[in-house]
Design goal:
Two copies of one chain form a homodimer. Chain A is mainly alpha-helical and 129 residues long. Chain A is 58% helix and 8% strand. Chain A has a three-stranded antiparallel beta sheet with strand order 1-3-2. The two termini of chain A are 15 Å apart. The interface between A and B is large, with 40 and 40 residues. Chain A binds a DNA duplex (30 and 30 nucleotides) through helix 3.
DNA sequence: CAACTGTTATATAATATGTATAACAGAGAT
DNA sequence: ATCTCTGTTATACATATTATATAACAGTTG
C-alpha cells in the first residue's frame, strides 16, 4: 500500500489517508480481511503524528470500511458498506457542483461522461491487473 | 437568484455562495453581463458578514466567473472561463475519490454514469425552462 | 515481564472561518 | 459641494479545524 501524501495540499492529511485507503480497497490493493498498519507504525513510516492516522482510521471505521479490534489492530472490513442514502446524498451534491462548473466552462455531457467511464474502467482494470 | 445557505453545514458559507452562483450561471438564472448584488446588500439580505460575501466574490473573480468594477459593482463575466487544466485536475481528483467509494459500495458503472447524465440533463433543462 | 495493540487525555501551535468596525478612493446623483 | 453607493483594505476578535507532542491506560501476545 503506497501513500502518496502531499503535506502542502489544502486537503487535510487525515482526509488524504482516508481517500488513499478507499482507493486501495476499490482497486483491491487492499483486500477484505487484510490487516492495515498500526497507527504508530504508519505514522512513523510517513513521518506524521499518530493522532492524524488515528483520525483517518476512526472515519473509515464509522463509515464501515475497516474493523478495529482494540488489541489485534485494524483490518479491511469483510462486509463493505453498501450504497447508503448518506453516500448518495454526498455523491449527488458533489456531482452537482462539478457538473455546474463543467457546464459553465463548456464541457459537453459526452466529455464529462467519458471522464467518469474512463476513471471507473481504469479502477476496475487495476482491480484485476 | 435564490441562496439556500445552511449555516450549520460543514461547507464554509463563502464556498456555498460560490457554488450557488456557479449553479446559477450554469442554469442561466444568472446571465452573462447580469449584475450581482453588492457585497453589502447581499450580506445584509442573508444575514452574514460583508467579508464572507467578499471572499466568495474574490474567488469567483479569480476563476473568471465574474467581473468586478471598483465603483460599478459585480457582474457575471460575458466571457466565461473555458476548460482549463486546473479545472480538469480538480475534476479528475474529485471524480476519482467519488468513483473509488462508489466501487467499494458496489455501485455499478451504469448507475454512476446515469447519475451524471441525469444531473447534467436536469441542469440543461432548467437552462431553457 | 516486555512489546505491541487501540484509546484517551492534555497541551500547544498554526491555520481557517466568520464577525465587527472603520476607513479609503472613485463614481454618480441631487 | 454633499451624500450615497461601489469595492477594497486594515485591524481586531472569537471560534473551529488541523496537526503535533507527550503521556498514560487496558488488554493481548510472545
Amino acid at each position: 500500500m503506497i501513500f502518496n501524501l502531499d503535506l502542502e495540499s489544502e486537503v487535510p492529511i487525515y482526509q488524504q489517508i482516508v481517500d488513499a485507503i478507499i482507493y486501495g480497497i476499490a482497486t483491491r490493493q487492499l483486500k477484505p480481511g487484510e490487516p492495515l498498519p498500526s497507527v504508530r507504525s504508519l505514522s512513523a513510516d510517513i513521518g506524521i503524528n499518530m493522532h492524524t492516522v488515528n483520525k483517518a482510521y476512526q472515519i473509515l471505521k464509522n463509515d464501515g470500511f475497516v474493523l478495529i479490534h482494540r488489541q489485534k489492530g485494524v483490518m479491511v472490513n469483510t462486509e463493505l458498506p453498501g450504497v447508503e442514502p448518506s453516500f448518495l446524498e454526498k455523491l449527488h451534491a458533489d456531482l452537482k457542483n462539478l457538473t455546474a462548473e463543467a457546464i459553465c466552462r463548456g464541457l459537453s455531457r459526452e466529455a464529462l461522461v467519458e471522464q467518469v467511464q474512463k476513471i471507473y474502467q481504469q479502477m476496475m482494470d487495476e482491480r484485476r491487473g
